[in-house]
Structures are given as structure tokens and as C-alpha cells.
Specification:
With 394 residues, the protein is an alpha+beta fold. It has six helices and 27 strands.
Length: 394
């Protein structure tokens, strides 16, 4: 569905992108779609009214069973601000701290304010816009931070969280022939390495746990309740966001890229100017002084196969050891790919649920650390994907 479910402006038109050769049946009254429901076609206009909109849809290919049900819930944002619609008025950042320091079980990290804006797209004729400012963590979640919140969340008598995976301290190691070296954790790694081996649902459930640990209303809801169990097996009811919550969540794809590319007023010659604001070129790692073809420039800001030993012999590194980007974010390139909230809609129709990741990793070549590169990861437990959190502004 486009735009993605969430806050939109009133009157926004919703488009459904079905798989090739598939018929799509949908409802807008909250009921489960059947073959008797409305048949979607290219001329269909679905608009979000003042009270919001809930869409449920399923796809059907000839001689196949119906797909999983896709569920999109849209709310009309106040003052024209939205995560997906046109830029609105009414956003006042004057009273907000530019950097918030949070401490959890002895672990500290900063949430940095990222101002909304329009940045370059994949060509000179395309731009991308994030319409609401937000806070983003200056580093990926370490294993120590993950473990402290995890242990609290699953403790008997606690809030009753359940995870599919316990998480791992950093990445794994493989020998020169590609065989796994069975050591957990890798010798020499510490709790300051990124947490890995958690799937996408573990990540969003942990975001809710972090919110509750800090006394904040959680963002992710499942069937109208706080989502606390990542082992839920079905895909016929999509996870929804509590759009009024300041709870922690995974970044939207464009939020991640905006934070990765924003140079503010830094107008050195290689920057790209859009509306008086300057942006890192698409083929640079975040914070780098040259493109990913320049090994020295990339190694200064990103852990990739160039400076870790690569997929055979290398592994993750402690977070926040290399130079940050212009806004103060560490490891936006390399070390671990980072989960985003962006779902590959084509995979969802058939229940595989693939999500986009950004940033590259310790096991990947330097060009994967470029700010415009994205990738798709299955919701399994890769050892080169981690978590960075965001939350909305008040």
C-alpha cells in the first residue's frame, strides 16, 4: 500500500500494488476480505476521510490459494503533519533539546533530533521527503543494552514479554572455506558489540520493552494490544503503530536515509544542495569525505570487509569507535545492517514478510555502506543485522 500505513493528511489517496497477474479483494469496514469483497482495479480511488481508514486486502493468483491478508490503518494527522503525506505546518522545534542522553542499566546513548526535510532521490529529477522531525539513537543497540532490557522484560512477574531469540553478542566467525566457527561470543568481543541474531519481530517487541522500561507508552500494537510476543506466527493481521505514542520504534526507510545524508549547512564542494540544505552524495558512506571507492575515506567511518577481515575471518566491532557523521550518528555505514520498518510489499502478499535493511555490515564490501543502498532481509536471525531506534517528537 502506498503511502505506508500511519499518519496521513485528510483526503490522501491510497494505492494498492498487487503482485503481477493477481486479483485483489479488499474491505474498508474492518471485516476480513473474501471473494465477495470489493475487487480492486487501476481506476479504484480509496481516500482517507476525516475519521481515518482501515483497509484489509488479499491477493489471488489463478490456481493458487489466497494470500495472507494485508492490513493497513491510516489516521489523519494534526496540523497537516504526517509520516507519509505532504509537508504540513505547525512543527515548532524551538523548545526541544537537540540531544537527549538516556541511561538504561549502566548503558548510555543519545537520542539526536533530526529535522524533517527533502533530500535527493535516485536521480536528479526525484527527491524524497520526511515530513515530521524525529529523534534517532546515535548508535546501534549494543548487546549489553539489549540484554538488560530483555532480562527485565522476560522476568517472572514482569510485563510478560516473549521473544523468539535471546540475541547474540556481535557476529559469528567463518573459516576460509565458509564453515562456521562455533564460538559464542567470538573471543575478544564485548557487550559493546551490536546485538545480532534477532529477527524483525524480536526487534519491534524489544522496542516496546524499552519504552515500558522507561515508562513510555509503547508504539507497536497487535490486535489492539501492546505487542509483547515476537513468536506470534500469523501474518494475516499486520502490526499497527500507536501514532500518538512517543514510544521507541524502528526507523522508517526514508528517516534512516535522511539522518544518514544530512549535512545541514556544510556546503563543501561534493555536497548536493536541496532547498538550502546540503546532503551526502548517494555513493558515499555516511560521514565520509569521499565515495566508497576511496578505501581510506570509507574506513574512517564504516566497518566493512575492508577493515574487519570480511565474511571469512572477520566479525563485528564495538559500536561508536569510528568517526560519526555530521549529525553525530555512529556506524550508519557498516558494522551491522539495520532493520527498518519498510516492508517489501510483494513478499507480504505471500506471507514471507521481508523487511528492508540499511547501512551494510562488517561482512560486506564497502559499496554496501553507501547511504543510498538498501537491501531486503528475511525475518530470520542474521548475524550481520542489528537495531537502531527512533521516536517521534512531542
Amino acid at each position: 500500500m502506498a503511502p505506508l500505513p500511519g499518519d496521513v493528511t485528510g483526503g490522501t489517496a491510497i494505492e494498492i500494488s498487487p503482485p503481477d497477474h493477481a486479483a485483489v479483494y479488499y474491505t474498508i469496514d474492518g471485516t476480513v476480505p473474501t471473494l465477495e469483497s470489493i475487487l480492486y482495479d487501476a481506476d479504484t480511488v480509496i481516500s482517507v476521510g476525516d475519521e481515518g481508514l482501515t483497509i484489509r486486502a488479499m491477493a489471488l493468483l489463478p490456481n493458487h490459494r489466497p494470500s495472507a491478508i494485508v492490513h493497513g490503518e491510516y489516521a489523519v494527522a494534526d496540523n497537516g503533519d504526517s509520516d507519509n503525506g505532504d509537508e504540513g505546518d505547525g512543527e515548532d522545534l524551538s523548545g526541544l533539546d537537540r540531544r537527549l542522553t538516556l541511561s538504561v542499566g549502566g548503558e548510555s546513548f543519545d537520542m539526536i533530533l533530526v529535522e524533517r526535510g527533502t533530500f535527493p532521490g535516485p536521480s536528479e529529477f526525484i527527491t524524497r521527503t520526511v515530513v515530521r522531525s524525529f529523534y534517532m539513537a546515535d548508535r546501534v543497540v549494543t548487546y549489553d543494552l539489549w540484554s538488560h532490557v530483555y532480562d527485565w522484560a522476560v522476568t517472572a512477574g514482569g510485563p510478560g514479554y516473549q521473544f523468539a531469540n535471546e540475541g547474540r553478542q556481535g557476529g559469528m566467525r567463518y573459516d576460509n572455506t565458509g564453515n562456521l566457527i562455533e564460538d559464542n561470543p567470538v573471543p575478544g568481543s564485548t557487550g559493546q558489540h551490536p546485538v545480532t541474531k534477532v529477527n524483525w519481530r524480536d526487534a519491534v517487541v524489544w522496542c516496546n520493552a524499552l519504552s515500558e522500561y522507561l515508562g513510555i507508552e509503547p508504539y507497536y500494537l497487535y490486535d489492539g494490544e501492546v505487542f509483547r510476543n515476537s513468536q506470534v506466527p500469523d501474518y494475516d493481521r499486520l502490526l499497527l503503530g500507536n501514532t500518538g505514542s512517543e514510544g521507541f520504534r524502528l526507523p522508517a526507510d526514508f528517516q534512516w536515509e535522511l539522518a544518514s545524508r544530512d549535512r545541514g549547512s556544510d556546503n563543501r564542494d561534493d555536497g548536493i544542495e536541496v532547498d538550502g540544505r546540503y546532503w551526502t552524495p548517494a555513493n558515499y558512506a555516511s560521514g565520509a569525505q569521499d565515495s566508497t571507492d576511496n578505501t581510506q575515506a570509507t574506513d574512517a567511518v564504516a566497518w566493512t570487509s575492508s577493515n574487519t577481515g570480511g565474511a571469512f575471518g572477520g566479525t563485528t566491532k564495538p559500536v561508536a569507535q569510528l568517526n560519526p557523521n555530521e549529525l553525530g550518528f555512529y556506524d550508519m555505514g557498516g558494522n551491522v545492517w539495520e532493520w527498518t520498518s519498510r516492508l517489501d510489499s510483494q513478499s507480504l502478499w505471500w506471507g514471507s514478510g521481508q523487511y528492508f535493511v540499511r547501512g551494510g555490515s562488517w561482512a560486506d564490501p564497502a559499496n554496501n555502506a553507501a547511504v543510498a543502498v538498501d537491501n531486503v532481509s528475511m525475518p530470520g536471525t542474521p548475524d550481520n543485522v542489528g537495531i537502531r531506534v527512533v521516536h517521534r517528537i512531542p
